[in-house]
């Protein structure tokens, strides 16, 4: 199927294109079940639908059982120590896709989650593939919204609350593309205290979460974005070129003459003194990787609204790296090698911290036992 679809599908009839798009989407989801052994569950869960119907007033039509959207998870997810959550952007993409145009005109390797499923299987990670754009169902009564899943943000929050949080996994890692970044920030806003206990990192790809999506987050959530998240953005620069540094504690000042020492240029390590970047951004020039760009000409050179937003002090907070492509839909798979490396390094860091905490507790217990 991947090779069959690796041709440029061009047609003047949109309905023909939609038929092909639907067939590709169905094939991807069937493959997740048949070839990858994943299981499909429908949301809302049956018990939540039943509970919702019980609460409805007498005489009101009950919620139809078909008002559900499917998500997919690996068959052995209950035994997984690490769970990978895959969240696509907005639009016509369905669970299992990053970009339907790439699935049709390029290949399933370029446009679907298959490479991530293969990678997760090699690492013995569990996987949950979300379905944030299935928000309504056409019924005999017309188009009806799906309870608890009537928007991307609601779907992500409900999936966490009804499914993910009940998994025994110790670590969650996440990849969120485009508008998926906004939904992720909404999850951190409303469930952050619980989610951050086990969410180790998020790899955003051309995420739209800057500005309004992060301004209301808690201090802990903002710290998480700055220290444990990276956004691979569309850019003409090479893969992993630093586009923006993370914004952290804005109360600290930069020591004159030590800017280069305070700025960490490693693509996968967040800058501990990242407040300096906001100060640099307010000046007439700022840094993108090793290139100095004059503020007046930044849009003409890069044509990235994200840069001017940052200069206005609205930021995604997290570090932003180049995905190595200027095409929005290609960012996730273009950055796949770097994303997989980042996820592993974040897990290693998290497990090391947990191990250190356990050793500290053991030492404290031994000391208290000796004292008694």
Q: In words, what does this structure look like?
A:
- The chain has 14 helices and 13 strands.
- It has 372 residues and is of the alpha/beta class.
- The strands form 3 sheets. A 9-stranded mixed sheet has the order 1-2-4-3-7-8-9-13-10, with helices on both faces.
Topology (elements, then pairings):
Layout lengths: L13 H21 L4 E5 L2 H10 L13 E5 L8 E6 L12 H6 L2 H4 L2 H9 L3 E4 L6 E4 L2 E4 L6 H11 L8 E7 L2 H16 L3 E7 L13 H10 E5 L8 E3 L14 H4 L13 H6 L3 E4 L2 E4 L3 H5 L2 H7 L7 E4 L8 H4 L1 H36 L1
Parallel strand pairs: 3-4, 3-7, 7-8, 8-9, 9-13
Antiparallel strand pairs: 1-2, 2-4, 5-6, 10-13, 11-12
Helix pairs in contact: 6-7
Q: Features of this protein?
A:
372 residues, alpha/beta, nine-stranded mixed beta sheet, two-stranded antiparallel sheet, 40% helix, disordered N terminus
Outline of the structure:
The protein has 372 residues and is of the alpha/beta class. Helices cover 40% and strands 17% of the residues. The strands form three sheets. The chain has a nine-stranded mixed beta sheet, sandwiched between helices. Strands 5-6 form a two-stranded antiparallel sheet. The protein has a two-stranded antiparallel ribbon with strand order 11-12.
